Amino acid sequence: MVITGTTLAAGLAPTTARGTPAGAASSGRAPIAFQKAVRLVLPPPGGPHALGTAALHLSDRSRRDPWVATLPARELMVQLWYPARASTGQPRAPWMTGQAAEVFQQTGYLLPEYATLPDTHARIGAVPDTRGGRLPVILYSHGHGQHRGSSTALVEELVSHGYIVVTIDHTYDAGQVEFPGGRVERYAMPPFTAEDDDPVILKAVDVRVADTRFVLEELWRRVRGRRDPLPHGLGDILDLSTTAMFGHSLGGATAASAMAAGVPIVAGANLDGSLFGPVVAKGLRKPFLLMSEDADNKASWPEIWPRLRGWRRRLRLTGTRHFSYTDYETFMPQVAARLGATDEQLAEFIGPLDATRAIDVQRRFLLAYFDLHLRGHRAPILEGPSPRYPEVRFIGGAG
């Protein structure tokens, strides 16, 4: 499934609970136009580590930008999230940087009059916690039209349990990307159809795979060399020989395709994304997790399933929808009343499963998966159905 950010507004228009235009009175509720914006919050991560973060501006001069032909190099923004020494001196990083946030809030329904975007739990430039030595690295790829912060609730949980997560903005495929100096580059992909063999989508996956390969190579270069070192001593704690990847929607497809293309990734996870290109026919020999929404209607999944020759699981989280695997799962219940959205509208967008529960289940299963394949820890919740997690259906598994 490929869904753009503009698709989101269709299901939750800013109306009152009675369906009247925003600003009209509804029974016992102040007119929406006169209510304060809701300050959104992210759920606190559950692990023992404090969080730090640092953004990097990378430029791949071996490639012209594939979406904007006039640009001589492919520019990316990535963000490193890492376990840090506990500190209150540095500011918390915003969920989205200032100029990008302004662009983001001009579209969809999280307009500034309805919602104030949150801060994360990571502190900018915090001192890395070196007591655990070098730590496994997990890459994150966002969905089509989304951005590197789209699944921050999942990213922060992994970091709080001792992983380093590198989130990638795929420029011009992302809704908006802010570069140093406040320059914002907006979405610029050409139109495409919903067909699996649409050349624009196939190109997008190839571009994302090249982005992923370049990010890993650039991190290796910075860890090994003295030129352009990583900030805040991060080079001392990255274990780039143990690297995994996950993503939502087209980001999940990116993880699978990057592995099939030989990018050195030891395990991958796809959160409700259709698969595209050669990986569907070629398959994978490394561990791969498929976790879907309630509908689970992606034709590429049963096609690739017999070609997944390593450890594999196919899970369905009942009561969820496509964007349940993003921070919209936690944001939308907070802002629904301000938008005037009905319970039915909310359920159509993120599903009827309680949002807190949905996020908790996702966090637990994703952490268990990476603990199993990056640290060799036993993961009972991945071995089969459990009464502790009745929402999770095991559609298939091996290994």
UniProtKB/TrEMBL annotation:
Keywords: Hydrolase, Lipid degradation, Lipid metabolism. Gene3D superfamilies: alpha/beta hydrolase. Transmembrane segments: none annotated. One of its GO terms (molecular function) is hydrolase activity. This is Dienelactone hydrolase. The lineage of its organism: Bacteria, Bacillati, Actinomycetota, Actinomycetes, Kitasatosporales.
